[in-house]
Amino acid sequence: MPKKINHDLRKEKILKTALDVFAREGYKDSNLSLIAHECGISRPTIYQYFKDKEEIYYFAVKLVTGRMFKKYADYAWSNDENAMDRIFWICNDVLEYGIAHLAELSSLVDVMILMKREGTDFNKVILKRTAKLNILFKRLLRQGKDAGDIVSDINIEEITEHITFLLESFCLEAVFLGAENLDKSKDIIYRYLFIYKK
């Protein structure tokens, strides 16, 4: 009797393994044969799930960011802390996650640079993957404003852009300069957010 295969689990294993390979080898030097070998499957089997390395990378990023967003949404709506405290907790966790997975973050930057050179606008992919987080920040800011926890004359769109820009900048700094400034980065975000807290 043939062995029954859980295709969802296999697809997730390919994605997780691919992230490890990309982080270790770099995106450019990774290939489907290596990913297949480390998954314990054949290269043709990978083609049953993904058309190429770029698609694997896109879905791997989607898997990670989707799980992170679920964690942040669950946290944001499961407690009654001040909105700015919740936003800071999320920002803090993003930075901690980035540092804990610095090789994967470096691989993501490598992919972005490589695709930019090839004429692909990876920025659209990043914007799509972070859109839910931006919406979450906006909702929290509105909630805080309505509750009187945040100063009333704020521009929610602008503050959301600033938060996103700070997170992106600190993640890039960690990739290129190392994780030594994590506490400084957290402090800058903390000081920025709490300008608006009542």
Q: Can you tell me about this structure?
A:
By secondary structure, this protein is mainly alpha-helical. It has a domain of 134 residues: Tetracycline Repressor, domain 2, CATH 1.10.357. The protein is 75% helix and 0% strand. It contains nine helices and no strands. α4 runs antiparallel to α5, α4 runs parallel beside α7 and α6 packs across α8. The chain is elongated.
What's the short story on this structure?
With 198 residues, this protein is mainly α. Helices cover 75% and strands 0% of the residues. α1 packs across α2 (32-39), α4 (53-77) runs antiparallel to α5 and α5 (83-100) runs antiparallel to α7.
Q: Largest beta sheet, briefly? A: none
What CATH architecture label of the domain at 60-193 applies? Answer: Orthogonal Bundle
* CATH level-1 class of the domain at 60-193: Mainly Alpha
The N- and C-terminal alpha carbons lie at a distance of: 67 Å
How much is the radius of gyration in Å?
A: 19 Å
Low-confidence stretches: none
What count of helical segments does DSSP give?
9
In total, how many beta strands? 0
Estimate percent helicity.
over 70%
Could you say which structural class the secondary elements and strand pairing correspond to?
mainly alpha
Tell me, briefly, the overall form: elongated
The amount of beta strand, in percent, is under 5%
Mean pLDDT: 87
